[in-house]
Amino acid sequence: MCRLPSEPILAKLNFPMTRSLPSASRLDISGYGYQAEELPSAGDAPRTEDDPRLWFDDPTRPFELEIGSGKGTFLVQEAPHRPEHNFLGIEWMMAFWRYAADRARRRDLRNVRMLHADAVEFIRQRVANKSIHTFHLYFSDPWPKSRHHRRRVVQDATLVEFHRVIEPGGTLRIVTDHDDLWDWYEEHVQRCELFEREAYEPCVSAKAGELVGSNFERKFIPEGRNFRGMTLRRND
Ligand SMILES: C[S@@+](CC[C@H](N)C(=O)[O-])C[C@H]1O[C@@H](n2cnc3c(N)ncnc32)[C@H](O)[C@@H]1O
Asked: How many angstroms separate the CA atoms of 67 and 91, rounded?
């Protein structure tokens, strides 16, 4: 069973994104929204039948996964530019997940799916070895208090997991505006030999001056925040 943090705790962390969303009854997520809570129990290791690539019309396409998609802005912008790739967004805030899935359906983006889950747990339990072409981790929650650092997505153990699921030559793309989280990323990457660090190139769908073009980035560009990105390529 997938355990997700309570919504009030999460809402506090996402203060810039909590403008009112349409009520659930006005959203239609059929064919686009999946919930970890409704999937068969996970096995001891990822099983063939659990592979999320099977949720797409053509499971053989390169598979990209975004951790913490928020309202899905990056996905609905990027996916039409690269219709030959499949995109899965994972978001644990129910309202955002539902909104993003409905958004993808309204735009008829057959290469996008949204999953309600804890992304780290889902990847560990259900994502197959060498199945991911690109990971996207944009403006991940910084969990600024030291006692909460263990909740950050990037940990020594998650880098090992990401290496397991990324295909040869595949990448993990990271962007943040948070200085302490950036230092955390640098420290973890420096002591990890599983990836080669490369310069970050903005997303295909980003507008001039943007690194991603997500809600979070657009909200804080006017404040002149220091946005930084890195690309980590899997070492073999
Ligand atoms: C600050 S928001 C950024 C959202 C979006 N990436 C953007 O740039 O606008 C971080 C998002 O990640 C989600 N999130 C954080 N950790 C997660 C996890 N382990 N699994 C799924 N979603 C997660 C949060 O609920 C939140 O919506």
From this structure: 7
